[in-house]
Structure to design on (427 residues):
């Protein structure tokens, strides 16, 4: 392994990603300090790099820096604005900047990709074991700040961030299972390549674990988003122009059928989900249909969405400039409500930028790119986004795209143009 700036940056980035995704490590003060130093080291090395993204920033980099600067300004305004709750957002956008620094050579992120591929199953398994020991509600307890949550995380139980970041992994794993030959696995560690049959079992085992993890966690929206993502990923395994129109039509058909037979579907699912956290939400939904209004958890989520929408409509230009009066259950709606039209649209653009970029760049990998785009449309619309999503979206996803043969073919075709004056050469 050659010790150069890229290698040192990858080591620093791997430390940060391991800290973010590892439930026990995220609690240890010394590891937090190490992760902070790793981020600072990455930035210093990026400044020293010949083609530094800070010397020739792209619009996502400028947008992310502008967003962070504006968010910090709001902290100095009087009102309800907790800086600590926004640190995860800053780290998320920092990971976007990391990707932009490698946008011409995302394959250089492959060492970090494989590090996470080998470590994520550890935390998925430890979380599943935690469900067996403490019950499926353990993932919800971890979200709260309490001694019980701390004890669970120390034993490797992940919560909201680990569960929802798994959703972005689903399209990547689906394509790795069914289009294995489309990937150039030379970037993988030698010990994996030494046992090709066992190596090939890694993606299906991870997909099975991720599916069990999401189901056992009991997050209804996570199950819905995973189901939608699986449908898109499998449907587009054989990309065809006609499929682009079939997807929305199938979705519309399912929505119409679901509306017509929703009561029957709920009655069918309630006995199946008996004994799980899903049954309570299904009964809330059933009662909502019966009384003609939202009740229970359905009512709570509907009220939170409405709160953010109303806050935005009352303050469309600048938003409420704080956390007060916001539902805190939809990243997109909350950003429009908190920061107004411009910064709400900027946040949405930053979250959707990379999936759309890869969708246009790799039309032959529609299963993976379309699947990730589906997640990043539905997930932030229906829930909050944490920094763990950034690890998969901005680091693992572009690396997975870069090791496909289609990406390499397109890069070779564009190589003559990359040396033209005014263009940034690959890192």
């Amino acid at each position: 392994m050659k010790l150069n700036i890229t290698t040192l940056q990858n080591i620093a980035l791997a430390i940060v990603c391991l800290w973010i995704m590892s439930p026990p490590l995220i609690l240890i003060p010394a590891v937090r300090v190490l992760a902070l130093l790793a981020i600072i080291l990455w930035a210093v090395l990026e400044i020293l790099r010949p083609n530094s993204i800070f010397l020739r920033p792209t619009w996502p980099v400028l947008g992310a820096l502008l967003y962070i600067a504006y968010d910090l300004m709001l902290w100095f305004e009087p009102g309800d604005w907790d800086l600590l709750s926004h640190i995860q957002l800053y780290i998320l956008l920092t990971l976007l900047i990391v990707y932009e620094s490698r946008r011409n050579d995302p394959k250089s992120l492959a060492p970090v990709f494989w590090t996470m591929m080998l470590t994520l199953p550890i935390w998925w398994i430890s979380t599943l074991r935690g469900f067996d020991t403490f019950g499926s509600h353990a993932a919800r307890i971890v979200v709260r700040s309490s001694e019980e949550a701390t004890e669970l995380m120390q034993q490797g139980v992940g919560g909201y961030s680990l569960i929802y970041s798994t959703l972005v992994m689903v399209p990547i794993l689906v394509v790795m299972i069914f289009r294995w030959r489309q990937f150039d696995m030379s970037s993988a560690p030698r010990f994996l390549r030494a046992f090709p049959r066992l190596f090939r079992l890694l993606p299906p085992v991870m997909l099975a674990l991720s599916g069990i993890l999401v189901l056992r966690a009991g997050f209804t929206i996570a199950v819905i988003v995973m189901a939608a993502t699986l449908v898109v990923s499998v449907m587009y395994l054989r990309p065809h122009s006609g499929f682009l129109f079939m997807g929305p039509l199938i979705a519309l058909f399912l929505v119409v059928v679901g509306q017509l037979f929703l009561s029957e579907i709920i009655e069918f699912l309630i006995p199946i989900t008996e004994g799980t956290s899903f049954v309570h939400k299904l009964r809330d939904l059933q009662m909502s249909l019966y009384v003609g209004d939202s009740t229970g958890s359905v009512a709570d989520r509907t009220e939170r969405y409405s709160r953010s929408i109303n806050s935005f409509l009352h303050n469309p230009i600048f938003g409420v400039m704080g956390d007060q009066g916001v539902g805190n259950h939809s990243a997109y709606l909350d950003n429009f409500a908190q920061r107004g039209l411009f910064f709400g649209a900027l946040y949405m653009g930053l979250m959707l930028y990379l999936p759309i970029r890869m969708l246009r760049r790799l039309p032959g990998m529609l299963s993976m790119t379309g699947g990730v785009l589906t997640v990043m449309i539905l997930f932030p619309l229906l829930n909050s986004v944490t920094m763990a999503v950034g690890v998969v979206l901005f680091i693992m996803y572009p690396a997975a795209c870069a090791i496909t043969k289609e990406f390499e073919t397109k890069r070779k075709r564009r190589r003559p143009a990359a040396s033209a004056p005014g263009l940034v050469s690959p890192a």
